[in-house]
Design brief:
The complex is a heterodimer. By secondary structure, chain A is of the alpha/beta class. In chain A, strand 6 and strand 7 form a beta hairpin. Helices cover 27% and strands 30% of the residues of chain B. Chain B is built from six helices and 13 strands. The longest helix of chain B is centred in the first third of the chain and has 15 residues. The chains are: A alpha/beta, B alpha/beta. Chains A and B meet through helix 3, helix 4, strand 5, strand 7 and strand 8 of A and helix 3, helix 4, strand 7, strand 8 and strand 9 of B. Strand 11 of chain A pairs antiparallel with strand 9 of chain B.
């Protein structure tokens, strides 16, 4: 039994999500290899080699992997699959895109968004937006898994010294081509890695008002998030969306402002350590999960909060 | 170009689900069922392609018990031309659904297959990718914009941190994200017309697909409940509590 993890990175640095997956993999009790597939990504492999508990880093450095196209990454994982009992990736947009392709080619089920490892073949995963938790057992020879990173505390990033082993690239698929990316540039921390998140909902009433959350976020060193209602109304871009179909977050502090607390939103943030809700409707469901609730007009409360901090 | 759309019948997104008392699953008897919201976006996109003269025929496929016919009728009322119901009472997991869809694609030869990126019941987010793999087609998942050409499709995808644009050759599999479009409501005349549109019924065995589940569900539990905390009276109170009690700022 050996586990292979697809590392998440941007060719320059290893993303912290990889550390959460290593923590999940350690619960399987098998040796762990890490695959770094990218282009001119040696620094990533070197960072990966320092993770304690990683036996080997497999480095596939090729132009085919400059961008994480599912067709190319799946072909690489399939070439490496023999010899592995478990293949894991974080449940990021990359992991979700690639892993089912690998599972289908191996003729095995994928176990999505794993939140708990009961044994080498039994896992806990959320269904119905996390309103129920299913314990599932896989009898397949290989377990292909995406890991909900917020459910596992990250493994340490330093202290190990794994060997880096180059692996051959697979032919690139002519059927899919990367054209470009618009990555939101922000001075603030990334939503899924932030210690504090300030999130706004429909109560913000306009895109202009939404900007007032930025002042609060800057005071707290926080990332800015949004409910689906706020995204649908055009107050905030979709990559800020927290919820069942957006990002799943679990920061130390989550400040929900003008968010009513639909179950789809709660699904994305209810594992936060401390939740603060500011809403003028005291019946809003968000107060049922908030550690600290303030019934107030957010247009007065938020500027006041910025001043108090 | 023929477009195939897959539509799943799921518990309506407004229903507050209940875990069965014997922990075998979630209560689905006497619960409002609807088309998976992401699949509605898929049907809408297909209908828009037809309205733009890029698609010639839209085939809506659903799988499950007889009641899935209603989901197909909804797609037909939105503008799909005909339906295929894969009738079975067996539990269908994503790999089995992808295998059935593959057989249907071999037969129907669509230029594009559109699926929702995930179903809101099992939240798997797998079927489209699995289908693309089985067909050896390229995939464009989590799409927020589609520009369909004659031999390829340029697709903008929702990714962590922003957007990505890729070009895939046709035939291809597309999965929808929320911002791709806003699905229409079917008009009454179209609902009436949909009743006359044809729906073929097939069973998985006749397609030669083994649909046996690969994962067995051992139990289903309610998630740990979060206790409601306290209400604070003022912003100053809130800041004080966060500093001294919660110690998070």
């Amino acid at each position: 039994m050996t586990t292979l993890i697809l590392a998440e990175h941007d060719n320059a640095s290893l993303k912290p999500a990889t550390l959460n997956v290593v923590a999940a993999a350690q619960k399987l009790g098998a040796p762990i290899d890490l695959l770094v597939a990218g282009h001119t990504c040696k620094a990533v492999a070197e960072a990966a080699a320092k993770i304690p508990g990683v036996a080997k880093v497999k480095l596939a450095d090729d132009a085919a992997y400059a961008h994480p196209l599912a067709e190319n990454l799946a072909a690489l994982l399939l070439a490496l699959a023999p010899g592995y009992s478990h293949i894991l990736a974080p449940a990021t947009t990359t992991g979700k895109n690639v892993m089912p392709r690998v599972a289908a080619k191996l003729d095995v089920a994928q176990i999505s968004d794993v939140c708990g490892v009961e044994s080498a073949d039994t896992f806990v995963r959320p269904i119905y937006a996390g309103n129920a938790m299913a314990t599932v057992q896989s009898k397949d020879a290989v377990k292909v898994i995406t890991v909900r990173t917020t459910a596992f505390d990250p493994a340490p990033a330093e202290g190990g010294s794994a060997a880096i082993e180059p692996v051959a690239a697979q032919p690139a698929s002519p059927k899919s081509r990367f054209e470009g990316a618009q990555i939101t540039k922000s001075e603030r921390p990334e939503l899924t890695a932030a210690r504090v998140i300030v999130s706004g909902g429909r109560g913000m009433a306009s895109a202009d008002n939404f900007k007032m959350l930025e002042a609060l976020a800057d005071k707290l060193g926080a990332a800015v998030g949004a409910s689906r209602a706020a995204v649908d109304a055009g107050f905030a871009p979709n990559d800020l969306q927290v919820g069942q179909t957006g990002k799943i977050v679990a920061p130390e502090l989550y400040v929900a402002i003008g968010i009513s607390g639909a179950i789809q939103h709660l699904a994305g943030m209810k594992d936060s350590k401390v939740i603060v809700a500011i809403n003028k409707d005291e019946e809003a469901p968000i107060f049922q999960v908030a550690d600290y609730g303030l019934v107030a007009d957010l247009f007065q409360a938020v500027p006041e909060l910025v001043k108090e901090l | 170009m023929k477009v195939l759309v897959a539509v799943k019948r799921v518990v309506d997104y407004n229903v507050k689900i209940r875990v069965k008392s014997d922990n075998t699953g979630v209560e689905t008897a006497n619960v409002k069922m609807s088309m998976n919201p992401f699949d509605e976006i898929g049907v809408e996109e297909a209908v828009r392609l037809k309205e733009a003269g890029k698609a010639t025929e839209i085939v809506a496929v659903s799988m499950g018990p007889q009641a899935c016919q209603e989901t197909i009728r909804t797609a037909l009322a939105m503008g799909a031309d005909r339906g295929i119901l894969v009738l079975t009472d067996a539990e269908l997991q994503p790999l089995a659904v992808a295998k059935i869809l593959k057989v249907l694609c071999d037969k129907e030869q669509p230029g594009l297959v559109i699926l929702g990126k995930q179903a809101i019941d099992d939240d798997c987010n797998q079927t489209g990718q699995m289908l693309a793999a089985l067909l050896d087609w390229p995939q464009a998942t989590f799409a927020s914009k589609l520009e369909l050409g004659v031999s390829d499709a340029r697709v903008t995808r929702e990714i962590d941190g922003g957007l990505e644009t890729i070009t895939v050759t046709l035939p291809a599999v597309l999965t929808t994200d929320l911002r791709l479009n806003e699905p229409r409501y079917a008009s009454l005349p179209n609902i009436m017309k949909a009743k006359k549109k044809p729906i073929d019924t097939v069973d998985p065995a006749s397609l030669g697909v083994d649909v046996a589940p690969r994962l067995s569900t051992l139990k289903v539990n309610e998630p740990a409940k979060r206790q409601a905390g306290v209400k604070v009276a003022t912003v100053a109170d809130l800041v004080a509590k966060l500093k001294t009690e919660a110690k998070v700022i």
